[in-house]
Specification:
elongated, 0% strand, single chain, 192 residues
Length: 192
């Protein structure tokens, strides 16, 4: 069963969920649909920005709940405590912009914002503004690619080919950036 026609008929139905799961790849893929003429720009942009604000707000709420034992054990299992300590001293604008530029920092950055007890309205305003700008950039990048990759949509399973053509390089970039930045943040080991 080929899902490409169904996705092309209703591209907005699943976009929000995909942005929550893998924001940059889903946003660029949505931009390729805009570039190929299969979706309109404005609804895609609104869905992307709202989904990012919802996802980031959920991470903020995890941070606000960090005093609960099950949340604290989850954070320690993720080995994010060293990074959380480092991010706790950053200003909110710098924290949000860094997390939006390097997506691997989003989880610890927004959890640390919640732990620090930053006002939610201020947090949501910064996240909303940066999500809107990032959405514009990524959708624009996808739209540029969409005109080049629109031929994939005509193939059986074309939406999956298009998604793979966009998502694989984005995922590899994120993994490389995450490893690079986590290596910089790792506490030094001292030999005795």
């Amino acid at each position: 069963m080929d899902l490409t026609p169904a996705v092309l008929e209703h591209p907005y139905l699943v976009l929000g969920l995909f942005v929550l799961v893998e924001g940059p790849a889903a946003t660029i893929t949505a931009g390729t649909l805009v570039g190929a003429g299969a979706a309109a720009f404005w609804p895609i942009w609104v869905i992307v920005a709202l989904a990012e604000v919802v996802g980031d707000s959920l991470l903020y709420l995890v941070g606000r709940s960090a005093r609960r034992p099950w949340v604290a054990s989850l954070l320690s299992r993720l080995k994010a405590t060293a990074l959380l300590d480092r991010l706790a001293g950053m200003s909110l604008p710098r924290l949000v912009i860094t997390a939006k530029l390097v997506d691997a920092f989003a989880l610890p950055a927004f959890v640390s914002a919640g732990i620090a007890g930053l006002p939610y309205r201020r947090f949501a305003a910064w996240v909303g503004a940066t999500a809107a700008v990032r959405g514009l950039v990524l959708i624009g990048l996808g739209a540029l690619l969409g005109s080049q990759l629109s031929g994939l949509l005509a193939l059986p399973g074309g939406i999956f080919l298009l998604t793979a053509a966009v998502a694989v390089p984005v995922a590899v970039f994120h993994l490389v950036m995450k490893r690079y930045h986590l290596r910089k943040v790792a506490p030094p080991t001292y030999e005795r």
